[in-house]
């Protein structure tokens, strides 16, 4: 058996299921999964093994119509991830079909897709009838004839995911593995920890301010007893937001801290002491440093 290794980019609209698919392929939670759109800010790489192949997934932010600097930087990161990959998989939702957003992605692929290896994955297949799936597959392949294969999957339930993974394993280039066998994500642990806390905040706060906050791991201290002390700052852009994040008598931030700590302990397999602070930073959305903490390029946000 020849060793193979390569990069696979997952692209699609926000909420198409890219993070869920990545986590299922990798077999561990490396990309945050919420029902909020545009939660994946950085290009998270998860590493999956299949036989003698190593598949390095680039999970990109959802592709959408950008309005602000952060949006533009996220969309640039998504297309950049696709440009750097050996194979790109476009994920669409079966029950939503070809939306305006999918049409925009297809138009862009028709412009830049020449010479790129592309596959289509139709997700959430349990939500529609078989004949609708076939019609959608036909329509997508007519709109963009460059798809090498079409896969019908349910990222959440696992249907069809192994077929997609096996196909990718056979198609990535021959060559030595890019990462040690036990490494599942190339994001620094500090960033994964920050993402976990941000996920908990996003879930807890619903529509109130998902984009108006960011989380950074300020300090990570390994203790002699094997535990870790992690200090994180939640940046918000207004005083009023600080009150929302803290909650009545600090209940919200306390619940978020407990949920995040439990998940970190499970992920790291050891005890974690997590300390959260909330700070107002009115212009964090315009600070280059915040973007590099998220793995984004500040300049990509220039209008």
Describe this structure in words.
This protein is an alpha/beta fold and 303 residues long. The protein folds into two domains: 4-171, Rossmann fold; 189-301, GMP Synthetase, Chain A, domain 3 (2-Layer Sandwich), CATH 3.30.300.20. The chain is 37% helix and 23% strand. It has nine helices and nine strands. It has helices at residues 18-26, 69-84, 100-112, 130-143, 161-171, 189-205, 239-246, 251-268, 288-293, and strands at 4-12, 44-50, 53-59, 87-93, 117-123, 147-152, 213-222, 228-236, 272-280. The chain has a six-stranded mixed β-sheet, with helices on both faces. The longest helix has 18 residues, at 251-268. 40% of the residues are buried. GTP binds at residues 12-19, 59-63, 123-126.
Index terms:
303 residues; alpha/beta; Rossmann fold; GMP Synthetase, Chain A, domain 3; 37% helix; nucleotide-binding; membrane; cell membrane; rRNA-binding
Write a brief caption for the model.
The protein has 303 residues and is of the alpha/beta class.
Provide the CATH top-level class of the largest domain. Alpha Beta
* Topology, number of strands: 9
Globular, elongated, flat, extended or rod-shaped: what is the shape?
A: globular
Q: Which runs of at least 5 residues are low in confidence (pLDDT < 50)?
A: none
State the CATH architecture of the largest domain.
3-Layer(aba) Sandwich
Give the number of domains.
Answer: 2
Q: Strand content of the residues, in percent?
A: 15-25%
Which whole number gives the mean pLDDT?
86
Secondary-structure content class: alpha/beta
Count of DSSP-assigned helices: 9
Briefly note the CATH topology name of the largest domain.
Rossmann fold
Distance between the termini: 49 Å
The side-by-side strand order for the widest beta sheet comes to 2-3-1-4-5-6
Helix content: 25-40%
- Rg is 20 Å
Order of helices and strands: EHEEHEHEHEHHEEHHEH
Task: Summarize the biggest pleated sheet.
Answer: 6 strands, mixed
**What's the CATH H-level homologous superfamily of the largest domain?**
P-loop containing nucleotide triphosphate hydrolases
Region (G4): 123-126
InterPro entries: G_ERA_dom (IPR030388), GTP-bd (IPR006073), GTPase_Era-like (IPR005662), KH_dom-like_a/b (IPR015946), KH_dom_type_2 (IPR004044), KH_sf_prok-type (IPR009019), P-loop_NTPase (IPR027417), Small_GTP-bd (IPR005225)
Region (G2): 38-42
Protein name: GTPase Era
């Amino acid at each position: 058996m020849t060793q193979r290794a390569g990069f696979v980019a997952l692209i699609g609209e926000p909420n198409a299921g890219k993070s869920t698919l990545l986590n299922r392929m990798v077999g561990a939670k490396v990309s945050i999964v919420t029902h909020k759109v545009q939660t994946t800010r950085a290009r998270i790489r998860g590493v999956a093994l299949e036989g003698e192949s190593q598949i390095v997934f680039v999970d990109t932010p959802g592709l959408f119509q950008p309005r602000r600097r952060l949006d533009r930087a996220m969309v640039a990161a998504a297309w950049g991830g696709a440009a750097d990959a050996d194979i790109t998989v476009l994920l669409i939702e079966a029950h939503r079909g070809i939306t305006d957003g999918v049409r925009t992605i297809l138009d862009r692929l028709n412009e830049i897709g020449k010479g790129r290896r592309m596959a289509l994955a139709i997700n959430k297949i349990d939500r529609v009838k078989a004949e609708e799936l076939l019609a959608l597959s036909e329509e997508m392949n007519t709109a963009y004839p460059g798809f090498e294969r079409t896969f019908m999957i349910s990222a959440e339930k696992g249907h069809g995911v192994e077929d997609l993974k096996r196909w990718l394993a056979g198609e990535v280039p021959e060559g030595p593995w890019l990462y040690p066998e036990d490494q599942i994500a190339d994001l620094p642990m500090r960033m994964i920890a920050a993402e976990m806390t941000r996920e908990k905040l996003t879930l807890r706060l619903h529509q109130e301010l998902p984009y108006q906050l960011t989380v950074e791991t300020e300090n990570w201290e390994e203790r002699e007893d094997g535990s870790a002390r992690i200090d994180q700052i939640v940046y918000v852009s207004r005083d009023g937001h600080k009150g929302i994040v803290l909650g009545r008598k600090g209940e919200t931030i306390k619940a978020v801290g407990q949920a995040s700590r439990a998940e970190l302990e499970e992920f790291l397999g050891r005890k974690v002491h997590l300390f959260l602070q909330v700070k107002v930073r009115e212009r964090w959305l315009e600070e280059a440093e915040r973007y590099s903490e998220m793995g984004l390029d500040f300049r990509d946000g220039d209008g």
